[in-house]
User: Fold this.
Amino acid sequence: MDTLAERRKEAMKAIILELHRGLPAEQAKERFEKEVGNVTPSEIAGIEQALINEGMSPEEIKKFCNVHALIFRSALQSAASAETFPAHPVHLFKMENREVEKLLASLRSAVKVKTDFPGFESFRTSLKDMLSRLKAVETHYERKEQLLFPCLERKGFMGPSKVMWGKDNEIRALFRSALSGLDEMAAPGDFDAYASRALEPLLSEVEGMIFKEDNILFPTALEKLGPDDWVGILSESDDIGYVFIEAPHEADALVKEFRASLQEEPAFRDNAVSFPTGSLQLAQIMALLNTLPVDLTIIDKNDVVQYFSANKSRVFTRTKSAIGRKVQNCHPPQSLPLVEQILASFKEGKKDSYDFWIDHRGKK
Assistant:
């Protein structure tokens, strides 16, 4: 059906393709305002996804995504106004972005200071401290990449992980360049060249990423993801961490309730073992254990041998007759005191591991 929405989508796609063929950004912006008008964040995300599906490389889209954002800016800013719960991952991402904006403003104020004075070394140290603090935004990017992107992929949206992740990595590289460039400056007179080459590109890209997140990524994610997705993201966010903010107390109850609903005990069905962190077929488990380049012997809480791995290059001989045997009986009498000591220290909670070397058949 040739709906208005479809015609707008095709018009947007045509403009983006012309942009990639060399159409000036200002002309693209004029065409957009005339032929399309208002646009939702999910429509933009959908178009980029469609271009990927039709064969355009994510690398090519990544080159122009700053220009895309510029063209769509006015339409996006009016659309991206969703209010979220204080413990909602999007709200927390946005809180971090507001703190990043403060750091960016401080850095921009700092670089306006004249640097050709005796206090240059102090200025450089201060600037390096601010840059190092801003660099912590990489935790924000990691949480987005490891938790938000996989949820969008499961909804069929591969664009963010293919395009935005690439932009995140460009920012990481710019941080490395900006910090190393500060160390390499020989004199105050070198600062202007350094700022133009390394510092300004970094600050501009971090600002641009805030815009793309707030106006495209987050509104699209709010539309596509459901409550279980968001609580799942929230429940694992602590594992990666937050930056510049602390998660609110409201998050604790949600996370506890969500984790209580998860299957934490392994279960066996369809010839596979389901763990809290995924599932493996029995054949995969056996192949995995037998491929590890170490000997494994597993005993239960009663010191009885339950299993040993059958890898091809075992160090110590094991036979099936050991299964069901007390581990103490699997060692020569002179080793028994040490075996008992190790087992006792484990059971009493005094030790979690023992490491030692053994000379065996001419090898360590």
